[in-house]
Design a protein that fits this description.
- It comes from Pararhodobacter marinus.
- This is Cytochrome bd-I ubiquinol oxidase subunit CydA.
- Keywords: Cell inner membrane, Cell membrane, Electron transport, Heme, Iron, Membrane, Metal-binding, Transmembrane, Transmembrane helix, Transport.
- By secondary structure, this protein is mostly helical.
- The protein is about 70% helix and about 5% strand.
- The termini are far apart.
- It is globular, with a radius of gyration of 27 Å.
- A hairpin with a 4-residue loop joins strand 1 and strand 2.
- Helix 7 runs antiparallel to helix 8 and helix 11 crosses helix 14.
Length: about 525
């Protein structure tokens, strides 16, 4: 099987993005859990909570460092592999990325250093503030990345400038408060909280099975199960909000998720299971739940959700409209200041559909020369791979409900059964450690693969976004990334397993002795002078 430049570039970016996202959810969730644990330590002054903070903080640090290395690589790819994309929409897409680097990442990286090296130099309250700033920085970083990603799905606050031949920002606030970006942010960070919670739950369950670090493990289970249950429930609620948003911003993706080939009478049913057949444009052996999809997608029982066939017909109309915009744009480029007003008016009327005309460049050099068959083919190109989207979504949702059940059970045992956990439940918690990552990766497949054939939905086709490289160039970088990332993955797993097997580096007695020495240093000038007695 031969890959062309576009497919190879897509494969490379997908590989590096999904690898990077192995680190992101754990960073988001562990930063919050560590801050919660340190908050309890400051409030109760109990050494066990300081021990928990340092132990889980160590695992957070390992994950954070490797996540940063893979994230930087991804941003370089926009210039290396997707140069035309960067040129075409860089004025819009680059803004949130720059803010993420200047505001969020630098803040996060600075306070991570204070968190690890400030235990002996900061007071408890000051160190707690640092812990929360690390958590806020981690989540704030995700916000700006997801604003950029959300704009690619729902490109508001920007317009095409025919003079510069680029997309330019018209409203920064519309970009920031894009409803798709906000829905993606809250849904993604909640999924990260679930990932970290099940990681802490699983590792703690392993300790309980081995009879090691019992106090730390039980308290960690209590925190992780409570936080995980709240997060898992919020993922479902926020996922429902994403479905409603898709109902009017990503109609084709929603129809693909449902394998809804034809428009159904309102309210549409939800297809629980089935076998989508894209060649025949049918879903075989479909098991449907009445009304559910209509409620999710429209919040009503009377509004229809358009099917794939109807959306393709709409796409064909937009392709033909885009051809008019393309024709006017070519005239404007040739005549410049002498362009007739009627031509400019025609471009203004059809400019929103220009991206659909660009789909024709996969079939013909000049979209104005496209045949009816080519226009229809371009319209059908707007349909993503339904089978992949359909099943990725259902496996993700199924895992989400499994997380609710698991965290609810452990929360009940921790709260009402004196933290006594059956061994089968502990084993299940260990086995479930990888499951949140699987769900998160499937979620990204639904979100990003479901946007195809667009890099920026309705604006720029993926086939036009790549750099002018050779297939050999891309293969070399793919091989390099595979080797480099394999080494990083081995290092990550080895370090994580090493520190998990080692357990907390201090026991409670050592922690108590440290606290005594720390208070002494804070209350004397040199840390050695004996403290004066209260009578003196």
């Amino acid at each position: 099987m031969e890959f062309d430049l576009v497919e190879l570039s897509r494969f490379q970016f997908a590989m590096t993005a999904m690898y990077h996202f192995l680190f992101v959810p754990l960073t988001l969730g562990l930063s919050i859990l560590v801050a919660i644990m340190e908050t309890v330590y400051v409030m109760t002054n109990r050494p066990i909570w300081r021990q928990m903070t340092k132990f889980w903080g160590t695992l957070f640090g390992i994950n954070f460092v490797l996540g940063v290395a893979t994230g930087i690589t991804m941003e370089f790819q926009f210039g290396m592999n997707w140069a035309y994309y960067s040129h075409y929409v860089g004025d819009v897409f680059g803004a949130p990325l720059a803010i993420e680097g200047l505001m969020a990442f630098f803040m996060e990286a600075t306070f991570v250093g204070l968190f690890f090296f400030g235990w002996d130099k900061l007071s408890k309250v000051a160190h707690l503030i640092v812990a929360w700033l690390v958590a806020i920085g981690s989540n704030f970083s995700a916000l700006w990345i997801l604003i950029a990603s959300g704009w690619m799905v729902h490109p508001v606050g920007a317009a095409f400038n025919p003079d510069t031949m680029r997309m330019e920002m018209t409203s920064f606030m519309e970009v920031v408060f894009n409803e798709v970006a906000q829905a993606k942010f809250v849904h993604t960070v909640s999924a990260g909280y679930v990932t970290a919670s099940l990681f802490v739950l699983g590792v703690s369950a392993w300790y309980l099975l081995k009879g090691r670090h019992i106090d730390l493990a039980r308290r960690s289970v209590a925190v992780a199960s409570a936080f995980g249950l709240a997060s898992a429930l919020s993922v479902v609620v926020l996922g429902d909000e994403s479905g409603y948003s898709a109902g009017h911003t990503q109609k084709m993706k929603l129809a693909a998720i449902e394998a809804m080939w034809e428009t159904h009478e309102a309210p549409a049913s939800f297809t629980l299971l089935g076998l989508p057949n894209q060649a025949e444009r049918t879903t075989e052996y479909a098991i449907e739940i009445p009304w559910v999809m209509g409620i999710i997608g429209t919040r009503s029982l009377t509004q229809e959700i358009p099917g794939i066939a109807e959306l393709v017909e709409e796409a064909e109309v937009m392709v033909r409209s885009g051809i008019l915009a393309y024709d006017a744009l070519q005239t404007m480029q040739e005549m410049r200041d002498e362009t007739p007003e009627a031509v400019r008016l025609s471009f203004d009327q059809h400019s929103e559909d220009l991206g659909y005309a660009l789909l024709l460049l996969s079939y013909v050099d000049d979209p104005r020369e496209a045949t009816d068959e080519q226009i229809q083919a371009a319209a059908w190109d707007t349909v993503p791979n339904v089978w992949v989207i359909f099943w990725a979504f259902r496996i993700m949702v199924g895992l989400g409900f499994a997380f609710i059940g698991l965290t609810a059970y452990f929360f009940w045992r921790a709260s009402f059964r004196q933290m006594q956990f059956p061994r089968w439940a502990l084993r299940l918690a260990v086995v479930m450690i990888p499951a949140p990552w699987i769900a998160a990766e499937l979620g990204w497949i639904v979100a990003e693969y479901g946007r195809q054939p667009w890099t920026v939905d309705g604006v720029l086709p993926t086939a036009l976004s790549v750099s002018q490289l050779t297939v050999t160039d891309v293969w070399i970088t793919i091989i390099g990334f595979v080797l480099f990332y394999t080494v990083l993955f081995v290092i990550e797993v080895a370090l994580m397993l090493k520190y998990i097997k080692k357990g907390p580096h201090e026991d409670v007695e050592e922690t108590e002795r440290w606290m005594q020495r720390h208070y002494h240093r804070l209350r004397t000038t040199d840390g050695k002078t004996p403290l004066a007695s209260p009578a003196e």
